[in-house]
Amino acid sequence: MLTRSFCLLLAVLMTAFEPLHAAASSDEARIRHQNFASKALDKNMAYTAIVPEGYDESRSDWPVLFFLHGLGRNENSLTDDPTCRELLLKQPYVIILPRGEGGWYINSPVNPAGRYADYMDELFKQVAKDYRLSTDPAQRGIGGWSAGGYGSVQTVLRHPGAFTALATIIGVVDYPREDTADNPLKFDVITSVFGKDPEVWQAYNPLLRAKELQNIDVLIVIGDRAFDRGMNERFVDELEAADITVTVEHVPPGHTFAAIQQGLPHVLNFMRGHITADRN
């Protein structure tokens, strides 16, 4: 009798846990890790895609957010973090997380092999085929954190009219530039990417081109204790002076991953209101 009762209890427990396991498996299946051959970089590169619940490959106009990681991170940094992964899986649009390595998502002026802007253009074409993404700017957003914030601004500047929304978290957006007493840089210029010539740097500093971000809505998430706070405040000032729509949010941490965790909900909600049909 005891054996029969135990078996019944075990069967009930297995049945109770089965939906939870199925749901977890379904969520994990929506996180897809893929590789492709980059001609620009002459090597295989990777990206992570998160598809929304109910993703249907027969649809050819999925809204999309491209979100770029910072230095020392990779395309899996957000999905490896439980807090961020849960947020990403709740979104109604496709999310593409490219591998950026340390290339700042630009073509380096001093390193001919560092063609990371060209690589990003390859990635756009690759994921458009893989995930049947919308080509309508109204359904396309881009953003990133730290160096990825820098790279997302540079990408929008290279592709005017290709996106409807731009969002950065603790972005390094007044860089590269010279260090001065009244405006300390607090972050050394990486000369292997940008070279040593301050005149060349000016062509690569997003702050100096902020007024070109016309016809795109911008979200800037500022870390109150981050070294880049002044950079972002100056960037916001430049946008407002050019009558560009900008939303500003603040998170308490400095230039740390905690700022990404706290800033990500602002980014995802902002994008939901701009690149999906259920605009807030």
Characterization of the model:
The model has no long low-confidence stretch (mean pLDDT 92). This protein is 39% helix and 18% strand. It has helices at 2-29, 77-80, 82-89, 116-131, 147-158, 191-194, 198-202, 229-241, 257-275; strands spanning 31-38, 43-50, 64-68, 94-98, 140-145, 165-169, 217-223, 246-251. The protein has 280 residues and is α/β, with parallel strands linked by helices. The radius of gyration is 21 Å and the shape is globular. The chain has one domain (30-275): 3-Layer(aba) Sandwich (Rossmann fold), CATH 3.40.50.1820. It is built from 9 helices and 8 strands. The protein starts with a helix and ends in a 5-residue tail after the last helix. The protein has an 8-stranded mixed beta sheet with strand order 1-2-4-3-5-6-7-8, sandwiched between helices. α3 packs parallel to α9 (257-275).
Topology:
Layout: H1 2-29, E1 31-38, E2 43-50, E3 64-68, H2 77-80, H3 82-89, E4 94-98, H4 116-131, E5 140-145, H5 147-158, E6 165-169, H6 191-194, H7 198-202, E7 217-223, H8 229-241, E8 246-251, H9 257-275
Parallel strand pairs: 3-4, 3-5, 5-6, 6-7, 7-8
Antiparallel strand pairs: 1-2, 2-4
